[in-house]
Specification:
The chain has helices spanning about 10-20, 20-35, 80-90, 110-125, 140-145, 160-165, 170-185, 200-215, 240-255, 270-280, 295-305, and strands at about 40-50, 95-100, 130, 150-155, 190, 195, 220-225, 260, 280-285. The longest helix is centred in the middle third of the chain and has 17 residues, at about 110-125. It has one domain: TIM Barrel (Alpha-Beta Barrel), CATH 3.20.20. It has 11 helices and 9 strands. It has a 9-stranded parallel beta sheet. It is α/β, with parallel strands linked by helices and about 325 residues long. The protein is about 40% helix and about 15% strand. Helix 8 (about 200-215) packs parallel to helix 9 (about 240-255) and helix 9 packs parallel to helix 10 (about 270-280). Its cofactor is [2Fe-2S] cluster; [4Fe-4S] cluster.
Length: about 325
């Protein structure tokens, strides 16, 4: 893969990860990550800028109006709150700051508010800005880009063969078009999903290769944290071994991508987190993680340094 070879299909990927002794597999993924990316580690943080009452029926989500989860609900935050949060994270060495909002897609009126938030952040801070506001078109994405949004995030969530069992109100094709629209207005894109939603190992391999087929270079890897009130509240959690195997799948299928530790990683013990970072996780969302308990940024930064990563090194993707 370092020489340009790409894994061709699900069976080949499964043969590699299931047929290789774990220690050798981990070492191989480690060498692949460090050869292609060096010791650079990409950090970002998010703010839940609009919460709850989402019309979509995503079965994992606390913010869906279809389920009773006790989730906080509020409209778009004011500039003071978002700018202060951006400045705080910048002071801790975090590279990117993202506005994340519930809802199917932003209206033009909402987009105008988001533009004001971004402009105020850019006025007072040098932190890179990202956005994750749902499905979007060039009409809404262009003013965000002009205001200073560099990256747009829209998760594919799971394997194509499994997605329809998780959500019926929009499709992965809708999500793909959003990413294409973001690229057309000059944004980079970020897209990943959640493992442990009831999919099998083969579907996790399918998902990893699906993201590779889209050319994704920043992949948030969430681990389901079952939320009471959602249809997935009783899903059995993945074992640490299965999580590490998934990390290997995503690294091997996406050698040039930043694999980004995201929601749910707090469920993992410290040793498993360290192993995942050694294998190939070379980015992370730190700080607040929407509706679930977040990690502490200072502790995260210490951990990344302990694993011989440099959070100040340049990191970028196309």
């Amino acid at each position: 893969m370092i020489s340009g070879y790409r894994i061709k299909d699900i069976d080949e990927l499964l043969t590699i990860v299931e047929g290789t002794e774990p220690e050798a597999l981990h070492e191989g993924c480690h060498r692949l990550t460090r050869t292609l990316h060096g010791d650079g580690f990409d950090t970002c943080t998010i703010i839940n800028v609009k919460s709850g009452l989402c019309p979509e029926d995503c079965k994992w989500c606390a913010q869906s109006a279809h389920y009773s989860t006790g989730c906080d609900t509020y409209d778009i935050l004011e500039t003071t709150r978002t700018t202060q949060q951006a400045l705080h994270n910048e002071s801790l060495g975090v590279k990117r700051f993202s506005l994340v909002a519930s809802g199917r897609r932003p209206s033009m009126k909402e987009t105008e508010k988001y533009v004001r938030l971004i402009k105020d952040i850019k006025k007072h801070s040098g932190i890179a800005c990202c956005a994750s506001l749902g499905l979007a078109t060039e009409e809404t994405l262009r003013p965000l880009r002009e205001a200073g949004v560099e990256t747009y995030h829209c998760n594919m969530e799971s394997a194509p063969s499994f997605f329809d069992t998780l959500c019926s109100t929009h499709t992965q094709a809708d999500k793909e078009e959003t990413l294409k629209a973001a690229q057309r207005v000059g944004m980079r894109v970020c897209s990943g999903g959640i493992i442990g939603m009831g999919e099998d190992r083969r579907q996790r391999a399918e998902f990893a290769l699906y993201l590779a087929s889209l050319g994704i270079r920043s992949i948030p890897l969430n681990i389901l944290q079952p939320i009471p009130g959602t249809p997935l509240q009783s899903v059995e959690r993945l074992t640490p071994e299965e999580v590490l195997l998934a990390v290997c799948m995503f690294r091997l299928a996406n050698p040039e991508a930043y694999i980004r530790f995201s929601g749910g990683r707090g469920q993992l013990d410290r040793d498993t987190q360290r192993k995942a970072l050694y294998i190939g996780v070379n980015a992370a969302i730190t700080g607040d993680l929407l509706t679930t308990v977040a990690s502490v940024t200072k502790e995260d930064m210490k951990l990344f340094k302990e694993m011989d990563y440099d959070t100040s090194a340049p990191t970028t993707w196309q």
